[in-house]
Amino acid sequence: MDNSGHHLVAIKFLTSIIMGLAFAFLLVFVFTPEKRDFYPAYELEKSELSSIENITIIGSGELSIREKLQQSQEFKSEVRNRSASLMEEAKAASLAVITADSMYRVDGLRDSIMSELENLKNSLNSEEEELLAEKRSELEADLSRKLQQIRREIKEKYADYSQKEIRDNYLKILNLHTAVEVVAENAEERKKYQEELDQVKAEQKELLAEKEQQENMDIASRTQKVIIEFNREFSDYRQEIRSEHQAVISAKEEELLAELDKIREETKNEMLKSREAEAKKIDIKILEILNKYY
Which sequence spans correspond to the domains of the chain? Predict the structure, then answer.
């Protein structure tokens, strides 16, 4: 039980005691009739006390001493019951503080466990990001090396693609350029050579385009396979890391929750014992106060 709880219970208990003492004071010094052998309103022999219930008090509403004493006793009983009720309320408040204190301890432990799990998750997430960044860099470097290798292999593969036709066309183009510029003696011959030159250039362009297209298609096909392999390998590695981390989190969570259940049960037992001991102590104190003042 914390200091504020003890302070609250102490105030309630002290209040009940003070009110009980105040009622007791009124009962003893105000409402209790004064014991004398002689009263100015009547004469009473001590030997006649056996018939006291037949004596009346002049000017007091015709109440007998017996009735007056009965009223006083009833008032005293009422004060006692009220004081006992107030002290029972203080007792309940004291026991409630013990219960609240136990619940507060368990709640605090649960919050601590949740915080520890959250810190573990954050730590593993940071580790995952670092590991994935390293793996990506490694895979990207390997991917770049493979792509360069593919381009070299494709270039070598198509190095001889229509090579004779292309080389022959280059020679034709050179010869026809010479014919147009040098050999042609008139405009008609120049036109003839120029038409042949344009036709050879068109054939050469078509051959080169076809070669480039085949190269690009082959490169794209092999590149796609390499990229798919890159993504698969990275995804598998990421799943492996996350599975390992989830296993760590699950094991830690199971451990902490088992510890929480154990401490919750221990705290419950301690609370019940504390409540029982506190209740007995307060009951004894209440009985002492009632017996002393009532």
Answer: 3-293
